Amino acid sequence: MIFNVTEVSGQQFAVVATPPQTFNVSSLPAPVFSVTETTPVIFNVSEVPTAAFIVQVSQAPVFNVTSTTGIQFGVTVSPPPQFNVVVDPNNPEFNIVLSVGIPGVGVPPGGTTGQVLAKTSNTDYDTEWVSGGGGGAYTGQSPTTVTVGGLAAGSAILSETYTQIFQTMLVPYVAPSFSSFSISGEPTSVEVGTTISGTQSFIFGFNQSGNVNANTLSIIDVTDSVVLGSNLPLTSPQSLSIGTIFSNSPTSHSWKGTAVNSQSTLFSSSYFTMNWLWRIYYGLNTNQTLAAADIQGLNNNNLASSVNGNYSFGAGSYKYFCWPDSFGSPSAGNGFKDTSNNLPMAMATSADNIAYNNVQNGWYYAIVSVTNVNAVTTNYRVYRTQNVLSSAYVIAVS
After folding, report:
1. I need a labelling partner for 383 at 20 to 30 A (CA). Which of 143, 163, 191, 366 fits?
2. What pTM value is reported for the model?
3. DSSP string covering 166-180, please?
């Protein structure tokens, strides 16, 4: 049977035909093909020989299906459909050859480029979109019993794709860390009485910066428990006000940075710590005792938190050591030692000069008040060799 229809006003067609038929439709405007039913229906179509549908229209045809109780269309095509399209401006022809099987649930919505449809359970039609190229999901024993590369023992791998498993083994996640953190231009040691204040530039860097979440940087005054800035960009430097920090005695002050990695874990930098220290002085002088100006005029000085160490002196004169009284005395016996022979140095006592009338651990010393460059005053101990020494020495203090 052949149906040839030509119309100019648009029609609605309802057709039931057996055996396979040929439908030739020429329509302007577009024809409407409608199926109306009142009971649930499943359409199973088997065509032998192949059905041919030839449609000639000037606008796209519209196929409307109306159902009051629900309708299910399931199409299984085997072998894969073959679409042969030859476009002629005056006579487009579409020949579709396919074998239609049992009905089934259609492809779920969603998905992105490169994803594939995968089973999520043994239930029919229970599928979801997953990243393609995974080689299927792992269904063997889980968790792992040994560590392989980056895949730790005890890891749950059931239902993970093989790509995910191999990636964890061969290219494990590397957590980021701070490679540096400091305040630009500020030393780690300053003399007691130094003030730092105002806006400071915090400079920092990251290892594995690609694994740090954007705008998660915080800079914290650890000593005062104050967050100086939060939700900051990851670009260095960041300029922030630190207030005013001052100390007239030995102390320390610390800052740190924190950020969040791409696995939502907070991590921190090492502390940048500034230490407020007293200055110690040592060197040569021919005077039997020293005043404050003489102490500060000795040819060697450095900021320190203790007196332990080796001290080098040139030839001639008395060898002098001057440090804050709070540092205390060297140990008894070899507290001052000649490194060339490991014997104790002979140091001045009150018998040599009345100024050296203080003693601790067997070592005599004078007390002199010294005011530093920051106008902070403290008492200094003055130790001197007993004699003028013509040779150069390296003296160990402990």
Report:
1. 191
2. 0.62
3. HHHHHS-----EEEE
Q: Are residues 306 and 335 in the same domain?
A: yes
| 250 touches 192 (CB < 8 A) | yes
Q: Which residue has the higher pLDDT, 116 or 35?
A: 116
**122 phi/psi in degrees, rounded to 5:** -85, -5
Report residue 172's pLDDT band, with 50, 70 and 90 as the boundaries: confident
> Whats the size of the chain, residue-wise?
398
The reply to whether 222 and 288 lie within a common domain is: no
Identify whether 234 is part of a domain: yes
Tokens for 251?
A: 């102390």
* Element housing 163 (H / E): helix 162-170
CB 186 within 8 A of CB 196: yes
Q: 141, 159 in Cβ contact below 8 A?
A: no
Q: Are residues 254 and 293 in the same domain?
A: no
Q: Are 63 and 44 in contact, with CB atoms under 8 Å apart?
A: no
Look at residue 322 and tell me if it is in a domain: yes
Tokens 């010294």 correspond to: 370
Q: Taking a C-beta distance cutoff of 8 angstroms, is the pair 49, 19 a contact?
A: no
Q: Please check whether residue 102 lies inside any domain of the structure.
A: no
Per-residue pLDDT reduced to its tens digit, 99-127: 444 445 667 788 887 777 778 888 888 88
Residue 176: burial class (beta carbons within 10 Å; 0-12, 13-18, 19+): buried
383 and 283 inside one domain? yes
Task: With H, G, I as helix, E, B as strand and everything else as coil, classify residue 224.
Answer: coil
Do residue 200 and residue 147 come from a single domain?
A: no
For the chain, the domain total comes to 4
* Selection from 33, 120, 46, 106 nearest residue 71 by Cα: 106
Of 311, 385, 379, nearest to 344 (Cα)?
385
Q: Range of 55's domain? A: 2-97
pLDDT at 305 over 50: yes
Do 260 and 282 belong to one domain? no
CA dihedral 100, 106, 112, 118 (to 10 degrees): -90
Same domain, 166 and 57: no
Q: What is the Cα–Cα distance from 170 to 307, expressed in whole angstroms?
A: 52
**Boundary residue ending a domain (172, 203, 228):** 172
Last residue of a domain, one of 67, 97, 127: 97
SS3 134: coil
- Sheet of 52-57: strand order equals 2-7, 22-27, 52-57
